[in-house]
């Protein structure tokens, strides 16, 4: 199974980078993982609605340029569906069974995802109704993918 995480922005804090490296190492046993960073759009703190859309659109173009037509795209969105770790593991198994074994997870920037990225998405996933920094979300996503892989393999990580 191939998994790609496309994310806006770079990891700045060493503790996040260390956690990501650890999960990349752990996941190498279960899947082929690739992390793709696209640059975030520089913007002032206060933006009009139109300016926010322009920022998301520019970041969205960068994201979409990294996605192949054949890939199954799961966007991380507050309004996405929520599921247990066991259900997430089962969902990944079902996707693989039905030939969608090249999965892309997309984590947007601080303003979220563009309409074009949301439209390209095959499904939306939410880890919470709360907002998380995208750097932390990358760690959480990798941990959940790792947990899902362990559950699929019948290993005791999920307890």
Largest sheet, if any? 5 strands, parallel
CATH hierarchy class name: Alpha Beta
CATH superfamily grouping: SPOUT methyltransferase, trefoil knot domain
Q: Can you write the helix and strand succession as a string? A: EHEHEHEHEH
Q: If you compute it from the alpha carbons, what radius of gyration comes out, rounded to the nearest whole angstrom?
A: 15 Å
Low-confidence sequence ranges: none
How much helicity do the residues have? 40-55%
With strands numbered from the N-terminus, the spatial order across the biggest sheet is 2-1-4-3-5
Q: Kindly identify the CATH topology.
A: Alpha/beta knot
Beta-strand percent range: 15-25%
Distance between the termini: 24 Å
β-strand number: 5
Briefly summarize what is shown.
This protein has helices at 14-27, 49-64, 85-97, 115-120, 134-152; strands at residues 2-8, 32-38, 72-81, 102-107, 123-125.
Question: Which secondary structure elements does this structure contain, and how are they paired or packed?
Answer:
Elements: E1 2-8, H1 14-27, E2 32-38, H2 49-64, E3 72-81, H3 85-97, E4 102-107, H4 115-120, E5 123-125, H5 134-152
Parallel strand pairs: 1-2, 1-4, 3-4, 3-5
């Amino acid at each position: 199974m191939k998994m790609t995480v496309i994310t806006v922005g770079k990891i700045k804090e060493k503790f996040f980078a260390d956690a990501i490296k650890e999960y990349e190492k752990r996941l190498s046993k279960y899947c082929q993982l690739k992390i793709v960073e696209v640059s975030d759009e520089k913007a002032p703190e206060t933006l009009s609605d139109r300016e926010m859309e322009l920022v998301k659109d520019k970041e969205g173009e960068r994201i979409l340029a990294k996605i192949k037509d054949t890939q199954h795209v799961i966007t991380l969105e507050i309004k996405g569906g929520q599921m247990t770790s066991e259900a997430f593991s089962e969902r990944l198994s079902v996707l693989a069974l039905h030939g969608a074994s090249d999965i892309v997870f997309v984590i947007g920037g601080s303003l979220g995802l563009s309409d074009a990225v949301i439209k390209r998405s095959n499904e939306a996933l939410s880890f919470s109704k709360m907002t998380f920094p995208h750097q932390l979300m990358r760690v959480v996503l990798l941990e959940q993918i790792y947990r899902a892989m362990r559950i699929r393999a019948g290993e005791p990580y999920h307890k």
